[in-house]
Amino acid sequence: MSFINRSKELKYLDTYYERTGSQIFVMYGAKGIGKQAILTDFIADKPYYYYKARPASEREQLYQWAKELNANQAKVPKHPQYDDIFSAITDKSKRKKVIVIDEFQFFIKNSSAFIGKLVELAHGQWNKSQVMVILLSSQVGWVENSLVGKIGEQAYELSGFLKIKELGFYDITSINHRANIRETIEAYAILGGNPGIWKHFDDKLSIEKNICQNILTPHVFLHHHAERIVADELRETGIYNTILAAIAEGNHRLNDLYQHTGFSRAKISVYLKNLMELGLVEKVFSYEIEGNDKAGKGYYRISNHFVHFHFTYLYPYQSDLQRLTPVEFYKKYILPTFKSYVTHYFKLACIARLEKWNREGALPFKFEQCGEWSGKVGMIDIVAGEAGGKILIALCNWEKPLLTYDDYEWLLFCAEKAGFSADYIYLFTAGRFDEKLDLEAKVKQNIRLIGVNDL
Prior knowledge:
Structural class: alpha/beta
Number of strands: 14
CATH architecture of the largest domain: Orthogonal Bundle
Strand order of the largest sheet: 2-3-4-1-5
Shape: globular
Radius of gyration: 26 Å
Number of helices: 22
Strand content: 15-25%
Distance between the termini: 26 Å
CATH class of the largest domain: Mainly Alpha
CATH topology of the largest domain: Arc Repressor Mutant, subunit A
Protein backbone atom coordinates (compact mmCIF):
# COMPACT_ATOMS: atom_id res chain seq x y z
CA MET A 1 0.00 0.00 0.00
CA SER A 2 1.47 3.36 -1.00
CA PHE A 3 0.98 6.49 1.04
CA ILE A 4 0.79 10.01 -0.30
CA ASN A 5 3.43 12.67 0.01
CA ARG A 6 6.43 10.38 -0.42
CA SER A 7 7.26 12.06 -3.72
CA LYS A 8 10.32 13.76 -2.23
CA GLU A 9 11.77 10.41 -1.17
CA LEU A 10 11.03 8.82 -4.55
CA LYS A 11 12.56 11.77 -6.39
CA TYR A 12 15.65 11.52 -4.20
CA LEU A 13 16.06 7.82 -5.04
CA ASP A 14 15.47 8.48 -8.74
CA THR A 15 18.17 11.16 -8.73
CA TYR A 16 20.75 8.59 -7.65
CA TYR A 17 19.41 5.90 -9.97
CA GLU A 18 19.73 8.19 -12.99
CA ARG A 19 23.38 8.97 -12.31
CA THR A 20 25.94 7.29 -14.52
CA GLY A 21 27.68 4.35 -12.89
CA SER A 22 26.80 2.27 -9.86
CA GLN A 23 25.77 3.35 -6.37
CA ILE A 24 25.53 1.95 -2.85
CA PHE A 25 22.71 3.73 -1.08
CA VAL A 26 21.51 3.41 2.53
CA MET A 27 17.79 3.81 3.25
CA TYR A 28 16.57 3.44 6.81
CA GLY A 29 13.67 4.18 9.13
CA ALA A 30 11.65 2.69 11.97
CA LYS A 31 9.60 -0.45 11.46
CA GLY A 32 6.25 0.27 9.82
CA ILE A 33 7.32 3.76 8.70
CA GLY A 34 6.67 3.02 5.03
CA LYS A 35 10.06 1.93 3.63
CA GLN A 36 8.59 -1.02 1.76
CA ALA A 37 5.82 1.11 0.25
CA ILE A 38 8.36 3.63 -1.06
CA LEU A 39 10.58 0.84 -2.33
CA THR A 40 7.67 -0.84 -4.12
CA ASP A 41 6.89 2.39 -5.96
CA PHE A 42 10.55 2.97 -6.78
CA ILE A 43 11.27 -0.46 -8.32
CA ALA A 44 7.89 -0.80 -10.06
CA ASP A 45 9.35 0.02 -13.50
CA LYS A 46 12.93 -1.14 -12.95
CA PRO A 47 14.75 -4.49 -13.04
CA TYR A 48 15.47 -5.45 -9.45
CA TYR A 49 16.50 -8.19 -7.03
CA TYR A 50 15.46 -8.34 -3.35
CA TYR A 51 16.93 -10.28 -0.44
CA LYS A 52 15.99 -10.00 3.22
CA ALA A 53 18.84 -10.83 5.59
CA ARG A 54 18.43 -12.90 8.75
CA PRO A 55 20.08 -12.52 12.15
CA ALA A 56 22.54 -15.38 11.52
CA SER A 57 26.21 -16.23 11.12
CA GLU A 58 27.87 -15.32 7.83
CA ARG A 59 27.99 -18.96 6.69
CA GLU A 60 24.29 -19.50 7.51
CA GLN A 61 23.36 -16.21 5.83
CA LEU A 62 25.06 -17.20 2.57
CA TYR A 63 23.56 -20.69 2.79
CA GLN A 64 20.04 -19.27 3.08
CA TRP A 65 20.70 -16.80 0.27
CA ALA A 66 21.91 -19.64 -1.97
CA LYS A 67 18.79 -21.69 -1.14
CA GLU A 68 16.58 -18.80 -2.28
CA LEU A 69 18.52 -18.36 -5.50
CA ASN A 70 18.56 -22.06 -6.34
CA ALA A 71 14.82 -22.26 -5.72
CA ASN A 72 14.49 -19.61 -8.45
CA GLN A 73 16.52 -21.54 -11.03
CA ALA A 74 19.92 -19.98 -10.28
CA LYS A 75 22.97 -22.19 -10.04
CA VAL A 76 24.81 -21.37 -6.84
CA PRO A 77 26.94 -23.67 -4.65
CA LYS A 78 25.31 -24.92 -1.46
CA HIS A 79 27.82 -22.94 0.61
CA PRO A 80 28.69 -20.04 -1.71
CA GLN A 81 31.12 -17.14 -1.54
CA TYR A 82 29.96 -13.56 -2.11
CA ASP A 83 31.34 -13.74 -5.66
CA ASP A 84 28.98 -16.64 -6.41
CA ILE A 85 25.99 -14.74 -5.05
CA PHE A 86 26.73 -11.49 -6.86
CA SER A 87 27.38 -13.31 -10.15
CA ALA A 88 23.93 -14.87 -9.85
CA ILE A 89 22.03 -11.65 -9.13
CA THR A 90 23.70 -9.36 -11.68
CA ASP A 91 23.30 -9.49 -15.43
CA LYS A 92 24.31 -7.53 -18.48
CA SER A 93 20.92 -5.93 -19.05
CA LYS A 94 20.91 -2.53 -20.71
CA ARG A 95 19.10 -0.93 -17.79
CA LYS A 96 20.60 -0.38 -14.38
CA LYS A 97 19.48 -3.04 -11.92
CA VAL A 98 18.34 -2.27 -8.36
CA ILE A 99 19.63 -4.73 -5.76
CA VAL A 100 17.89 -4.43 -2.39
CA ILE A 101 19.43 -6.02 0.70
CA ASP A 102 16.92 -5.63 3.52
CA GLU A 103 18.08 -5.49 7.17
CA PHE A 104 21.65 -5.34 5.88
CA GLN A 105 22.99 -4.75 9.38
CA PHE A 106 22.90 -8.52 9.92
CA PHE A 107 25.65 -8.84 7.29
CA ILE A 108 27.76 -5.98 8.65
CA LYS A 109 27.58 -7.22 12.23
CA ASN A 110 28.73 -10.75 11.35
CA SER A 111 30.96 -10.34 8.31
CA SER A 112 34.14 -8.37 7.75
CA ALA A 113 34.08 -9.26 4.03
CA PHE A 114 30.56 -8.20 3.06
CA ILE A 115 31.01 -4.46 2.58
CA GLY A 116 34.28 -4.91 0.68
CA LYS A 117 32.68 -7.35 -1.74
CA LEU A 118 29.72 -5.00 -2.12
CA VAL A 119 32.07 -2.18 -3.06
CA GLU A 120 33.66 -4.46 -5.65
CA LEU A 121 30.19 -5.23 -7.02
CA ALA A 122 29.19 -1.58 -7.36
CA HIS A 123 32.35 0.39 -7.96
CA GLY A 124 34.41 -2.39 -9.47
CA GLN A 125 31.83 -2.67 -12.28
CA TRP A 126 31.09 -6.34 -11.62
CA ASN A 127 30.28 -8.02 -14.95
CA LYS A 128 30.49 -4.48 -16.37
CA SER A 129 26.90 -3.97 -15.22
CA GLN A 130 25.52 -0.84 -13.60
CA VAL A 131 23.71 -1.47 -10.32
CA MET A 132 22.11 0.56 -7.61
CA VAL A 133 22.48 -1.32 -4.33
CA ILE A 134 19.95 -0.19 -1.71
CA LEU A 135 20.89 -1.22 1.81
CA LEU A 136 17.68 -1.17 3.84
CA SER A 137 17.47 -1.13 7.65
CA SER A 138 14.92 -0.63 10.40
CA GLN A 139 17.59 -0.14 13.08
CA VAL A 140 17.76 3.64 13.10
CA GLY A 141 20.12 3.96 16.05
CA TRP A 142 22.61 1.45 14.63
CA VAL A 143 22.72 3.15 11.22
CA GLU A 144 23.21 6.60 12.70
CA ASN A 145 25.62 5.70 15.50
CA SER A 146 27.47 2.49 14.58
CA LEU A 147 27.52 1.90 10.82
CA VAL A 148 30.34 4.26 9.86
CA GLY A 149 32.50 3.13 12.78
CA LYS A 150 31.92 -0.50 11.82
CA ILE A 151 32.91 -0.21 8.15
CA GLY A 152 35.61 2.44 8.55
CA GLU A 153 37.03 4.07 5.43
CA GLN A 154 34.67 2.04 3.23
CA ALA A 155 31.96 4.45 4.36
CA TYR A 156 33.39 6.81 1.71
CA GLU A 157 32.09 4.35 -0.90
CA LEU A 158 28.49 4.91 0.16
CA SER A 159 26.73 7.17 -2.34
CA GLY A 160 24.03 8.52 -0.05
CA PHE A 161 21.67 8.11 2.91
CA LEU A 162 17.91 8.52 3.11
CA LYS A 163 16.11 8.46 6.46
CA ILE A 164 12.38 7.76 6.13
CA LYS A 165 10.65 9.89 8.73
CA GLU A 166 7.16 9.84 10.20
CA LEU A 167 4.36 11.34 8.16
CA GLY A 168 2.83 14.68 9.12
CA PHE A 169 -0.71 15.11 10.42
CA TYR A 170 -2.41 15.62 7.04
CA ASP A 171 -0.47 12.85 5.32
CA ILE A 172 -1.05 10.23 7.99
CA THR A 173 -4.72 11.06 8.48
CA SER A 174 -5.35 10.66 4.76
CA ILE A 175 -5.26 6.90 5.38
CA ASN A 176 -7.77 7.28 8.20
CA HIS A 177 -11.37 7.18 7.03
CA ARG A 178 -13.07 8.70 10.06
CA ALA A 179 -15.62 11.39 9.30
CA ASN A 180 -15.18 12.81 12.80
CA ILE A 181 -12.18 15.18 12.89
CA ARG A 182 -12.08 15.05 16.70
CA GLU A 183 -11.58 11.28 16.68
CA THR A 184 -8.99 11.66 13.92
CA ILE A 185 -6.98 14.01 16.15
CA GLU A 186 -7.39 11.65 19.12
CA ALA A 187 -6.14 8.73 17.03
CA TYR A 188 -3.20 10.83 15.85
CA ALA A 189 -2.40 11.69 19.47
CA ILE A 190 -2.04 7.98 20.20
CA LEU A 191 -0.56 6.54 16.99
CA GLY A 192 1.48 9.41 15.56
CA GLY A 193 2.94 9.42 12.06
CA ASN A 194 3.97 5.78 11.64
CA PRO A 195 1.57 4.30 9.07
CA GLY A 196 2.43 0.74 10.09
CA ILE A 197 0.62 0.98 13.41
CA TRP A 198 -2.50 2.71 12.07
CA LYS A 199 -3.61 -0.59 10.57
CA HIS A 200 -4.03 -1.89 14.12
CA PHE A 201 -6.81 0.63 14.78
CA ASP A 202 -10.28 0.03 13.35
CA ASP A 203 -11.80 3.10 11.65
CA LYS A 204 -15.27 1.80 12.41
CA LEU A 205 -14.73 1.69 16.18
CA SER A 206 -14.71 4.62 18.59
CA ILE A 207 -11.41 5.72 20.08
CA GLU A 208 -12.44 4.24 23.44
CA LYS A 209 -13.19 0.84 21.91
CA ASN A 210 -9.98 0.92 19.91
CA ILE A 211 -7.95 1.65 23.02
CA CYS A 212 -9.69 -1.13 24.94
CA GLN A 213 -9.62 -3.75 22.19
CA ASN A 214 -6.41 -2.91 20.36
CA ILE A 215 -4.08 -1.61 23.08
CA LEU A 216 -5.26 -2.67 26.54
CA THR A 217 -6.19 -6.24 25.63
CA PRO A 218 -3.27 -8.62 26.35
CA HIS A 219 -1.56 -10.31 23.38
CA VAL A 220 -2.71 -7.78 20.75
CA PHE A 221 0.11 -6.23 18.69
CA LEU A 222 -0.02 -2.74 20.24
CA HIS A 223 -0.12 -3.97 23.84
CA HIS A 224 3.69 -4.33 23.98
CA HIS A 225 4.60 -2.25 20.93
CA ALA A 226 6.16 0.67 22.80
CA GLU A 227 8.31 -1.74 24.80
CA ARG A 228 9.54 -3.25 21.52
CA ILE A 229 10.37 0.20 20.13
CA VAL A 230 12.66 0.88 23.09
CA ALA A 231 14.12 -2.64 23.37
CA ASP A 232 14.87 -3.00 19.64
CA GLU A 233 17.06 0.10 19.58
CA LEU A 234 18.51 0.42 23.07
CA ARG A 235 20.39 -1.57 25.64
CA GLU A 236 19.93 -0.84 29.35
CA THR A 237 16.20 -0.48 28.82
CA GLY A 238 15.65 -0.12 32.57
CA ILE A 239 17.43 3.24 32.56
CA TYR A 240 15.67 4.46 29.43
CA ASN A 241 12.28 3.34 30.77
CA THR A 242 12.97 5.27 33.99
CA ILE A 243 13.76 8.48 32.09
CA LEU A 244 10.81 8.12 29.70
CA ALA A 245 8.41 7.43 32.57
CA ALA A 246 9.73 10.46 34.44
CA ILE A 247 9.21 12.75 31.45
CA ALA A 248 5.70 11.37 30.88
CA GLU A 249 4.90 12.15 34.52
CA GLY A 250 5.80 15.81 34.03
CA ASN A 251 9.53 16.02 34.78
CA HIS A 252 10.52 17.96 31.68
CA ARG A 253 13.71 19.72 32.75
CA LEU A 254 17.12 18.26 33.49
CA ASN A 255 17.02 19.18 37.16
CA ASP A 256 13.53 17.65 37.50
CA LEU A 257 14.82 14.40 35.98
CA TYR A 258 17.83 14.46 38.30
CA GLN A 259 15.62 14.90 41.37
CA HIS A 260 13.17 12.21 40.24
CA THR A 261 15.51 9.47 39.00
CA GLY A 262 18.55 9.94 41.23
CA PHE A 263 20.82 9.52 38.21
CA SER A 264 23.61 12.05 37.76
CA ARG A 265 22.94 14.97 35.41
CA ALA A 266 25.80 13.82 33.17
CA LYS A 267 24.32 10.32 32.89
CA ILE A 268 20.84 11.66 32.17
CA SER A 269 22.24 13.94 29.46
CA VAL A 270 23.93 11.01 27.70
CA TYR A 271 20.77 8.90 27.73
CA LEU A 272 18.62 11.83 26.62
CA LYS A 273 21.01 12.36 23.69
CA ASN A 274 20.47 8.75 22.61
CA LEU A 275 16.70 9.07 22.95
CA MET A 276 16.74 12.26 20.87
CA GLU A 277 18.84 10.62 18.15
CA LEU A 278 16.19 7.92 17.87
CA GLY A 279 13.36 10.45 17.67
CA LEU A 280 11.80 9.27 20.93
CA VAL A 281 12.49 12.49 22.84
CA GLU A 282 12.94 16.10 21.72
CA LYS A 283 14.35 19.16 23.40
CA VAL A 284 12.06 22.14 22.98
CA PHE A 285 13.28 25.73 22.97
CA SER A 286 11.12 28.83 22.99
CA TYR A 287 10.69 30.93 19.88
CA GLU A 288 13.25 33.69 20.09
CA ILE A 289 13.47 37.22 18.77
CA GLU A 290 16.94 38.71 18.59
CA GLY A 291 17.77 40.56 21.78
CA ASN A 292 14.88 38.96 23.70
CA ASP A 293 15.95 36.83 26.68
CA LYS A 294 12.61 36.46 28.40
CA ALA A 295 12.00 32.84 27.41
CA GLY A 296 12.53 29.93 29.77
CA LYS A 297 15.27 27.36 29.24
CA GLY A 298 14.70 24.38 26.97
CA TYR A 299 12.80 21.37 28.24
CA TYR A 300 12.36 17.72 27.19
CA ARG A 301 9.27 15.91 26.04
CA ILE A 302 8.52 12.54 24.45
CA SER A 303 8.14 13.04 20.72
CA ASN A 304 7.02 9.55 19.69
CA HIS A 305 3.25 9.59 20.15
CA PHE A 306 2.75 5.93 20.94
CA VAL A 307 5.71 5.77 23.33
CA HIS A 308 4.25 8.84 25.07
CA PHE A 309 0.83 7.16 25.36
CA HIS A 310 2.40 3.98 26.74
CA PHE A 311 4.48 5.74 29.39
CA THR A 312 1.58 7.99 30.35
CA TYR A 313 -1.05 5.30 30.77
CA LEU A 314 0.26 1.72 30.58
CA TYR A 315 3.72 1.74 32.16
CA PRO A 316 2.77 3.40 35.50
CA TYR A 317 -0.19 1.08 36.13
CA GLN A 318 1.14 -2.36 35.19
CA SER A 319 -0.46 -4.13 38.13
CA ASP A 320 -3.97 -2.89 37.35
CA LEU A 321 -3.34 -3.47 33.64
CA GLN A 322 -3.13 -7.16 34.52
CA ARG A 323 -5.88 -7.15 37.13
CA LEU A 324 -8.63 -4.99 35.58
CA THR A 325 -10.61 -5.52 32.41
CA PRO A 326 -9.68 -3.18 29.53
CA VAL A 327 -12.90 -1.20 30.03
CA GLU A 328 -12.31 -0.86 33.78
CA PHE A 329 -8.72 0.24 33.19
CA TYR A 330 -9.78 2.78 30.55
CA LYS A 331 -12.38 4.36 32.81
CA LYS A 332 -10.06 4.47 35.84
CA TYR A 333 -6.82 5.70 34.27
CA ILE A 334 -7.33 7.02 30.73
CA LEU A 335 -10.73 8.68 30.57
CA PRO A 336 -10.14 11.26 33.36
CA THR A 337 -7.04 12.81 31.72
CA PHE A 338 -7.30 11.86 28.04
CA LYS A 339 -8.46 15.33 26.96
CA SER A 340 -5.43 16.84 28.63
CA TYR A 341 -3.18 14.28 26.92
CA VAL A 342 -4.60 15.13 23.48
CA THR A 343 -4.09 18.91 23.97
CA HIS A 344 -0.48 18.89 22.75
CA TYR A 345 -1.38 16.88 19.66
CA PHE A 346 -4.24 19.23 18.83
CA LYS A 347 -1.60 21.95 18.79
CA LEU A 348 0.44 19.88 16.31
CA ALA A 349 -2.64 19.59 14.09
CA CYS A 350 -3.09 23.37 14.28
CA ILE A 351 0.55 23.90 13.34
CA ALA A 352 0.08 21.54 10.39
CA ARG A 353 -2.91 23.63 9.29
CA LEU A 354 -0.89 26.86 9.53
CA GLU A 355 2.02 25.32 7.61
CA LYS A 356 -0.38 24.18 4.89
CA TRP A 357 -1.86 27.69 4.63
CA ASN A 358 1.68 29.06 4.60
CA ARG A 359 2.65 26.87 1.62
CA GLU A 360 -0.54 27.86 -0.19
CA GLY A 361 -0.03 31.59 0.44
CA ALA A 362 -3.26 31.77 2.41
CA LEU A 363 -1.84 33.68 5.41
CA PRO A 364 -1.39 37.45 5.74
CA PHE A 365 2.38 36.91 5.35
CA LYS A 366 4.72 34.00 4.68
CA PHE A 367 6.37 32.90 7.91
CA GLU A 368 9.89 31.51 7.97
CA GLN A 369 9.95 29.91 11.39
CA CYS A 370 7.36 28.45 13.72
CA GLY A 371 7.57 27.39 17.34
CA GLU A 372 6.17 27.99 20.79
CA TRP A 373 7.05 30.25 23.69
CA SER A 374 7.34 29.22 27.32
CA GLY A 375 8.24 31.72 30.00
CA LYS A 376 8.30 31.94 33.75
CA VAL A 377 4.68 33.07 33.55
CA GLY A 378 2.42 31.54 30.91
CA MET A 379 3.08 30.17 27.46
CA ILE A 380 2.07 30.78 23.85
CA ASP A 381 1.06 27.68 21.92
CA ILE A 382 2.24 28.85 18.49
CA VAL A 383 4.49 31.69 17.38
CA ALA A 384 5.22 32.08 13.67
CA GLY A 385 7.15 34.91 12.10
CA GLU A 386 9.34 36.44 9.47
CA ALA A 387 12.98 37.06 10.28
CA GLY A 388 12.81 40.42 12.02
CA GLY A 389 9.34 41.00 10.63
CA LYS A 390 5.69 40.25 11.32
CA ILE A 391 4.58 37.89 14.09
CA LEU A 392 1.54 35.60 14.29
CA ILE A 393 0.58 34.09 17.65
CA ALA A 394 -2.01 31.40 18.26
CA LEU A 395 -3.88 29.75 21.10
CA CYS A 396 -5.03 26.12 20.75
CA ASN A 397 -7.89 25.04 23.01
CA TRP A 398 -8.85 21.37 23.13
CA GLU A 399 -10.17 20.91 26.66
CA LYS A 400 -12.50 23.82 27.41
CA PRO A 401 -16.00 23.70 25.88
CA LEU A 402 -15.96 27.51 25.51
CA LEU A 403 -13.05 29.72 24.46
CA THR A 404 -13.64 33.09 26.07
CA TYR A 405 -12.55 36.69 25.75
CA ASP A 406 -10.60 36.19 28.98
CA ASP A 407 -8.56 33.46 27.26
CA TYR A 408 -7.80 35.91 24.45
CA GLU A 409 -6.69 38.57 26.95
CA TRP A 410 -4.46 36.03 28.69
CA LEU A 411 -2.79 35.29 25.33
CA LEU A 412 -2.14 39.01 24.86
CA PHE A 413 -0.71 39.18 28.40
CA CYS A 414 1.68 36.28 27.62
CA ALA A 415 2.71 38.00 24.39
CA GLU A 416 3.51 41.16 26.35
CA LYS A 417 5.59 39.13 28.82
CA ALA A 418 7.38 37.47 25.90
CA GLY A 419 8.15 40.82 24.33
CA PHE A 420 6.19 40.00 21.15
CA SER A 421 4.21 42.59 19.27
CA ALA A 422 1.65 40.31 17.64
CA ASP A 423 0.50 41.44 14.20
CA TYR A 424 -2.00 38.59 13.83
CA ILE A 425 -3.82 36.42 16.35
CA TYR A 426 -5.29 33.02 15.47
CA LEU A 427 -7.53 31.24 17.97
CA PHE A 428 -8.16 27.51 17.46
CA THR A 429 -10.75 25.62 19.48
CA ALA A 430 -12.40 22.22 19.63
CA GLY A 431 -15.35 23.88 21.40
CA ARG A 432 -17.17 27.19 20.83
CA PHE A 433 -16.24 30.88 21.01
CA ASP A 434 -18.10 33.21 23.37
CA GLU A 435 -20.09 36.14 21.97
CA LYS A 436 -17.65 38.82 23.10
CA LEU A 437 -14.80 37.06 21.29
CA ASP A 438 -16.93 36.69 18.16
CA LEU A 439 -17.62 40.41 18.23
CA GLU A 440 -13.95 41.26 18.79
CA ALA A 441 -12.97 39.18 15.74
CA LYS A 442 -15.53 41.02 13.59
CA VAL A 443 -14.25 44.40 14.71
CA LYS A 444 -10.52 43.67 14.48
CA GLN A 445 -9.20 42.42 11.15
CA ASN A 446 -6.11 40.78 12.64
CA ILE A 447 -8.02 38.16 14.70
CA ARG A 448 -9.12 34.87 13.17
CA LEU A 449 -11.33 32.29 14.90
CA ILE A 450 -10.87 28.68 13.72
CA GLY A 451 -13.07 25.79 14.83
CA VAL A 452 -11.89 22.19 14.87
CA ASN A 453 -13.94 21.34 11.77
CA ASP A 454 -11.96 23.97 9.82
CA LEU A 455 -8.91 21.73 10.21
